[in-house]
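queue> pop job 88
queue> type: inverse folding (structure -> sequence)
queue> payload:
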């Protein structure tokens, strides 16, 4: 199951972020009726606001219990160095606030390319 960023997100508008959160919650409730989420991949197209919404959505214990597997993985890719910082923070927040079962690990892998191209 793929979950795409909300099309109508307008900057940091609270109304558009809340509407997106409601839409995603509704979509995920239907998608997880039979099978819970085991892996979340934060790809390079996901913006900062969408990361905030996802974190808030899964920060609610009812959503965590009904939508997420007990053992799961969150992966974030940051081909742009400017995006790497907030993505690391998002992963760390998942590790500290959302995953309740120990052990919880965080790893960082950097692929060095030719020239000035790195992918985290």
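queue> result:
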């Amino acid at each position: 199951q793929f979950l795409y960023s909300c099309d109508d997100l307008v900057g940091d508008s609270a109304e558009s972020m809340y509407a997106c959160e409601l839409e995603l919650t509704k979509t995920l409730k239907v998608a997880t009726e039979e099978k819970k989420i085991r892996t979340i991949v934060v790809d390079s197209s996901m913006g900062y606001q969408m990361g905030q919404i996802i974190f808030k959505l899964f920060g609610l214990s009812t959503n965590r219990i009904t939508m997420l597997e007990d053992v799961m993985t969150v992966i974030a890719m940051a081909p742009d160095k400017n995006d790497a910082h907030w993505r690391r923070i998002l992963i760390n927040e998942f590790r500290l606030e959302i995953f309740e079962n120990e052990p919880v690990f965080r790893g960082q892998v950097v692929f060095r390319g030719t020239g000035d191209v790195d992918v985290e």
